[in-house]
Design a protein that fits this description.
Helices cover 21% and strands 25% of the residues. It is globular. By secondary structure, the chain is an alpha/beta fold. The two termini are 21 Å apart. The strands form 3 sheets. It has a 6-stranded mixed beta sheet with strand order 1-2-3-4-5-6, with helices on one face. The protein has one domain: Metallo-beta-lactamase, Chain A (4-Layer Sandwich), CATH 3.60.15.10.
Amino acid sequence: MIGPATIFRQLFEPVSSTYTYLIACPETREAALVDPVMPAWQRDLQVVNELGLKLVMTIDTHIHADHITSASMLRREVGSRIATPALDALSCTDVPMEDGVPLQVGGVRIDPMHTPGHTDNHFALVMNDRVFTGDALLIDGCGRTDFQSGDARELYESVRGRLFGLPGETLVYPAHDYQGRWVSSIAQEKQRNPRLGAERTLEDFVELMENLNLPYPKFIDYAVPGNKACGQCPPDLPEHLRQYCQEMAESPQG
């Protein structure tokens, strides 16, 4: 179980409906942000400062296609180290994440778990009684598998074979939700996730994912190269997409 004094906050960025998670050690006051988002970087630092913490690390679960990470911005501002999947071999990475090799934030241990399928190098993060599932497992859903080397068969194995192997009471904190939901559990997703739960077979899941007919992601052509640089907003961003890089006018917090 997460200790009663362990510092944890769930923060929401409305443009991309992304959850950023603040994790901190109460003894050392060291903190990490999971999947920080560019428009919210000042909001995130404000929360860190208000809690009397020092941001020492940002952790991106994968190369995102729907927003740009603020990892590089935060490193420039406060010197936090950037953790990304080692398999992506990004030159801007300070801490290459590997499956089963713990990340340490003060006295808090975070265990990276390779969960490919949404992207080939996607990771989930296990921390005591909870798991940050990125885009692999969402509440009553899962991430797409039709771009960035996605693979429905791999995602099925990642979720059913790895994430669903965690204790049922493990809390599931996804990278996104589009219906105002905050948290689930492994037991709930195993039972009722309409894509991957219950008795869904591999063949059924592959057929389902191949026939979603989803639109081409509107920000992917800018987000992917920007995130391969650990968070660079392109100078040629069209007007209708500039909200993805502009500072938030409001700071909604979970």
